[in-house]
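Researcher: Please generate the 3D structure of the following complex. Treat every line as part of one assembly.
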Amino acid sequence: MKSSLKRYIIGKPLRSDALGEQKLSKTKALAILSSDALSSVAYGPEQILIVLMTVSTVAFWYSLPIAAGVVVLLTALIFSYRQVIYAYPHGGGAYVVSRENLGVNAGLVAGGSLLVDYILTVAVSVSAGTDAITSAFPSLHPYNVVIAVFFVICLTILNLRGVTESASILAYPVYLFVIVMLMLIGVGIYNVVTGQVPAELHPKVGTPVAGISLFILLKAFASGSSALTGVEAISNAIPNFRDPAPKNASKTLLAMGGILAVLFIGIVSLAYFYGVAPNAKETVVSQIAEASVGRNIFYYIVQGTTAMILVLAANTGYSAFPLLAVNLSKDGFIPRIFQIRGDRLGYSNGIMMLGLGAIVLIFLFGGTTEHLIPLYAVGVFIPFTLAQVGMMRKWWREKPKGWLAKFMVNTVGAIISFIVAMMFFVTKLPQVWPVFIFLPIIIWTFHRIKQHYKTVGEQLRLDNVELPNVEGNIFIVPVAGITKVVENTLHYAQTLNVDKIIAFYVAFDQAEAKAFEEKWKAWQPDIRLVTYYSPYRSITQPLMKFIDKVEHQCTKSGYQLTVIIPQFLPKKGWHHMLHNQSSLLIRASLLFHKNIVIMTVPFHLLK
Amino acid sequence: MKSSLKRYIIGKPLRSDALGEQKLSKTKALAILSSDALSSVAYGPEQILIVLMTVSTVAFWYSLPIAAGVVVLLTALIFSYRQVIYAYPHGGGAYVVSRENLGVNAGLVAGGSLLVDYILTVAVSVSAGTDAITSAFPSLHPYNVVIAVFFVICLTILNLRGVTESASILAYPVYLFVIVMLMLIGVGIYNVVTGQVPAELHPKVGTPVAGISLFILLKAFASGSSALTGVEAISNAIPNFRDPAPKNASKTLLAMGGILAVLFIGIVSLAYFYGVAPNAKETVVSQIAEASVGRNIFYYIVQGTTAMILVLAANTGYSAFPLLAVNLSKDGFIPRIFQIRGDRLGYSNGIMMLGLGAIVLIFLFGGTTEHLIPLYAVGVFIPFTLAQVGMMRKWWREKPKGWLAKFMVNTVGAIISFIVAMMFFVTKLPQVWPVFIFLPIIIWTFHRIKQHYKTVGEQLRLDNVELPNVEGNIFIVPVAGITKVVENTLHYAQTLNVDKIIAFYVAFDQAEAKAFEEKWKAWQPDIRLVTYYSPYRSITQPLMKFIDKVEHQCTKSGYQLTVIIPQFLPKKGWHHMLHNQSSLLIRASLLFHKNIVIMTVPFHLLK
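Model: Done. Output below.
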């Protein structure tokens, strides 16, 4: 555990009081927490066009009002979550808000969805980023899974090293992506305004479209709003911000919302003006870049930064998952290990768990995790809705100054989120049905764990029940021969206040048993030896039988039974392979099955 | 370990005194121990023709004298090994014979070669059998590795169930193969004798061949004698025979030699008369069967039994490897676990080790292990030679009645084996060079293990050095809180006659340390509490530091230090995941690094 390899990879441990230094500035936080949301610009617009194309390319003009709708939804969410940040400055986002205002089960639905969702985020984003890279270099295609797993491992290590260090490395690509996208949109719009883009490339806004239906439009809208996943990340991660944390978080959230809105509208508009149609071989962003600037160096920069931001989007999961896990763990719904800070003060168990989960998903789906996107989007809009409803309830109950305006903001957020979630269920049921199976299982598990902690707590609590009086102590020493190890153990046992020491020996045939008994009598005439014959060549079984017998007698007479195991320890690790490890087996089976004290007296070999 | 699954797969345990019942009758032994040797009929003749074809198909007539040479070699080996059986009725074959007559290192060369060789046997035979099956059903070809591993697992389980049970299942295919081969040879010879085979198919014996050289002929002979691998199996496995074991083993050996000679000569002759030339797509046996009887049902029976015997040839390794391992282990050259009889009285660790080794080889070579054959053949002829030389030495030294005849038999065996081994080194060096690397490493390891057992034995032996007097006992109790578990532990510690009990607590911040100290004073005023503050959030490190300190003082004043660990045990297995396992970590690092007694006081939760 303390090997120099670990030190090299993770860095040297940090003192607990260094915690303040690990906090995030606004610019770093924007980079680290918004890559998930911003990266969706790379696929959100495309999702809208894919749905519209099922009717006709003439319907593409609808992408403009739909994008406007998505931006309205985004605005509503941003303002709703801004209120969450100020109301819950200790973070926790949807889980805490729902639990406190709507009850435990609503909280667990939100928390459970998000917990799974972050794992999906990592798997989906990394796979998508890998795809972008292997599309550029087709010879790498057979290594998709290996590359994706490699990225996940890198992200895991970066996050184990600590939150600000990873931010420093991750900030540049995010800002680079934003700048490159803004330049692309700038050039594109300039071309459109200066009339360099032929008008016949795009259908006029308002052109009637045969076969268009409200269902199709809603489906397109739902698809487009998958670009809003990741918006909640900041509200979960407030404790990571520098003081004043809520104010800094709120500013970061607004900045993210602004950037996301501009990029989203920009890409959708350019796609419309250039008449870009989605196709399986080339992404919409790639087509826009090619149409605006041609296949030059800038085109490759656009593709490169897009690939990078997709991989980094996974990092949002790494920031939010461990913090959510801490909240769930503090409430006793998931194991306590998620509350332990690692050497570098990050919640390392959460980070490793997330990395492991993502790697498993990548292996299971062979690196093609795209069809998990709707599942992942619905898993985001369920907690969105619950959080907004929770906020409504809060304002309604507490009625602080100016509560009505706040109530209205969250009501709008709640209604829109709910509608989007429903649209996913209605229009994409074949992909989102697993939610109905996994969510109940997860929530049931949460309750089981909570129940366990509760009963354990009750059993461990001191009470006024007096512990029974101990009349005396009996020691059993299992011996494998007459050696220094046994001598050493008996010598130790004799220094303690013991009423009886019984040596116990297992013989594999009757003659051997007799011979051993005689040798023992000559060596240790004062210590009683019991020998059992084991016809099935097991050592543990006869020992257990004997212990049962003695334990039975002890219980009757108020004696305490202790098994004291002589154990010799070779000097080098590989030597362990050369010796039967019966004492370890004996110890394990005693510890787990019997209520008796087990003592190990080590005898370290010197060479 | 004692799960019902294990019972179902392996069968119920057998009593040690049931050992006699597991012994082999001659007919079963012939099946179980000769499948390796007999299966080589399926590839031995082909190996000869492949070498001759490098000159010209006219050279094929040389296959007849070469086959005769192989049969001479076989006869020499059979009679040599017959003498080994009588001289060493407890088995051990080449290893025991070489060690006793030529010294430890000669024995280890023989034993090491054979040990590795049996693993190669299993991997090579099973892969070849799988190839035969997937050649018949090409759609199975992508699953070659999976099928081969499946066969190895089946063989391992059969052998873990016990030696006679596996023989019962394995006897039928071996006898079926022998009968089918005899029928094939019978039909073929009948056709030849009745003149149904055109004479122009085969070159006349004695036809001069341009370009033939002694080197080619020797290479062909060496290749053909790879059919003799497996001949030593019976001499290794004498203890598996029913009494009188040596006599039964000797008869079985003669029977095997006779059958092998007939089949080998028969197949070579038919190949010659039908003018069969080896080709990559169809085996020689398959071509002979097709030429003699056509592609009818009998043809498929020939192919099927051939495939089966190849898989079963692996079983010879399962009989011989564990027994050789026992011999090496008894002499202290390999770990002692190989001497333990499993539930079904087989040496189960040897069986599992062999299966595992073969599976690793199959995975490493992707199921195409054919080019391991020369390596495997040379690994057989080295111990052959050593065993025969050892026998020569024995007769020379002991000079029993009629020793000269016996000496001559073994001398002939030794010379021929040596020549064959040398021919492999000369003609197939590119495939057999790993012997020169692995054999020295293996022998060095054998000596290291032996040396370790020796030094351990010396250190464990009782001597007259008095153990130091213990002035008193000090207990350290690491506590994680004020709970029933701790109360229970302290209660126990107080029943032993201890001079001092010190509770030890690790706090993660200063305020917490103070608060805990006060609570403790109120609860256990008589037991001293020591609190350390851990800035790096480690529990083990501060505990170790404290133990070091106390241990230092104890050593000075002759006190014995014991660490007594309170441990609560949840009722169900999955509950363990929900609790930090610090006490297990603490115990492990104490046991391996410190010379102090460790006690675990369990507190079993009831729900």
